[in-house]
Amino acid sequence: MNILYYDCFAGISGDMNLGAMLDLGIKESYLTAELDKLGVDGYTLEVSRDQRRGIEGTRVQVNLTSHKHTHDHDHGHHHHHRNLSDIKTIIDNSTLPEAVKKISKDIFTKLAHAEAKVHGKPVDQVHFHEVGAVDSIVDIVGAAICYDALNIDKVICSPIELGSGLINCAHGTFPVPAPATAELLTNIPTQMGTVPFEATTPTGAALMATMASEFTNKKQFTIAKIGYGIGYKDSEVPNVLRVFIGETKDDAFSSKDLATETAWIMECNIDDMNPELYEHIIEKLLNNGADDVYVTPIQMKKSRPAITLSVLYHKNHEEGLVETLFQDTTTLGLRRYKVDKLMLKRETVSIDTRYGAVSVKSAFFKGKQIKSKPEYRDCKAIAEKNNISIQDVYKEVFSQMHKDLT
Length: 406
What we know:
This protein is α+β, with helices and mostly antiparallel strands. The chain has 3 domains: about 1-245, no CATH class; about 260-335, Transcriptional regulatory protein pf0864 domain like (Alpha-Beta Plaits), CATH 3.30.70; about 345-405, Ubiquitin-like (UB roll). It is built from 12 helices and 17 strands. The protein has helices at about 15-25, 30-35, 85-90, 100-120, 130, 135-150, 180-185, 200-210, 280-285, 320-330, 375-385, 390-405, and strands at about 1-5, 45-50, 55-65, 155, 160, 165-170, 170-175, 190, 215, 220-230, 240-245, 260-270, 290-300, 305-315, 335-355, 355-365, 370-375. The strands form 5 sheets. The protein has a 6-stranded antiparallel sheet. The protein has a 5-stranded mixed sheet with strand order 9-4-1-11-10. It has a two-stranded antiparallel ribbon with strand order 2-3. A hairpin with a 2-residue loop joins strand 6 (about 165-170) and strand 7 (about 170-175). Helix 1 (about 15-25) packs parallel to helix 6 (about 135-150) and helix 3 (about 85-90) packs antiparallel against helix 4 (about 100-120). The two termini are about 35 Å apart.
């Protein structure tokens, strides 16, 4: 298993993370080419070598070409305000890989929910510069690009240093951590006072709250590579983000065979709810971040028929899913447990047919393609548009797939 370990002894910000990723070996040319797929302009990416207290690493600066800009706090800028829907539209309309799009939107969603809670407003009513700023878009989507390129199986993070002192932000003068940072790091191990300034920004907090599945000081892996992202402050403790790529040998399959990740399952048994409600609840859970939702018929005490409602999810979506289950079902309690997922490596391509383009997902094992499946939604849309049988669409797709192979 390939591990990406974040040693946040001096905190983390979006630019420090990009610096560390490039220091690990991600090429600047690759990052800029992928970022260009967003279609967002008004910035340049400046990459240089720098040092803090004798520690050399990579420094990344997002220079805005049309706005005055400072790197004191990534939550104190005054750029065009966008909401979460605007950001998701930009990402969805890009030509970035689907995996990068998902990671980017998950991070932005995490950040948006934190800001919404701080301001006491619904997410869709919050317009704030943290998510809308061009440099935050670059920092977050750039992180997703690098994470995807590194082919990492698991992200682990140390307890996160927050710093100390006062900051000037949209909420006025406020003690470290910023309100959004504090909200993002709820239930995540942190420490304070190692450095005399704001060490972790909302963007940095959102990255770790979304990407890391474990928080510990233990480095139980074989170190393969180390990268240093240089920050913009200086103190006795070097303002750097240290990141390790490590390897463990505890899996039956190598990362070349299967993708692995840690997820959670939340379940409840229900025997007193109108079955008509399940469709709405399942849809709402999926919209709130669940990876999968399914129901299993069971028999409870006194031979009562019931169902187990199971939700597969990542930890960062837990709060909204718990709220949905308690508010929208009749259950009085939940149980949850951690699971390890083994997944075939997947690839999605577009197949041109006489009816239009259809996405086809293929799965690979030990370097060989072992199965392929057209996307049902694409086939259904084509069948309805052309008033033909969906089976005819499937036949056409498989025919074109066979031609491509021969």
